[in-house]
Amino acid sequence: MQKTVKSLLNTLLYRHQLGFEIFDLLAILVDFGLEKHELRWARLVEKTPVYKSPTPYHPAPVYKSPPPPTPVYKSPPPPKEPYYPPHTPVYKSPSPPVKPYHPTPVYKSPPPPTPVYKSPPPPTPVSSLRSPTTSEAIPSCTSIQVSDPPPPVKPYHPAPVYKSPIPHHQ
């Protein structure tokens, strides 16, 4: 023990002369304290008697439960394809017939009937080339028959379709 202390002191002085820092000195002192503690512990262990039991110590065996069996996963069998014997032909049902598309006919109203005008009666033939008399030269109003003109035909206009006004975004 005395040799250890002397060697530590010599080391301290030597390091101090070389200019080591204070942290090194503290580390050496801590080492010295640990050595002292270890020496005390060694003495304590030497002084304590070791008692031997009359029967040897056999610890109880530790039983481990067996591991659970690993589950065996079976993959599903592959899907079976239908079996057709060689002599049996495979028939596919025909697809249903496609109905032709007939659009709904659009009905247009018939045009208005055109008015039938009567042609004027042919002029009465003037008897041979004789000169007309005064009464024949100027016909009277009663002798000429004028038919009333037909009423004017109104043009056909379908009813207008009104759409709601589109709102203007501002």
TrEMBL record:
User: What organism, scientifically named, is this protein from?
Assistant: Solanum tuberosum (Potato)
Q: Which protein are we looking at?
A: Extensin
Biased composition, class Low complexity, residue ranges: 126-135
Q: Where is this region: Disordered?
A: 56-170
- List the taxonomic lineage: Eukaryota, Viridiplantae, Streptophyta, Embryophyta, Tracheophyta
Ranges of Pro residues composition bias in the record:
56-125, 148-158
Q: Per the record, where are the segments of Polar residues compositional bias? A: 136-146
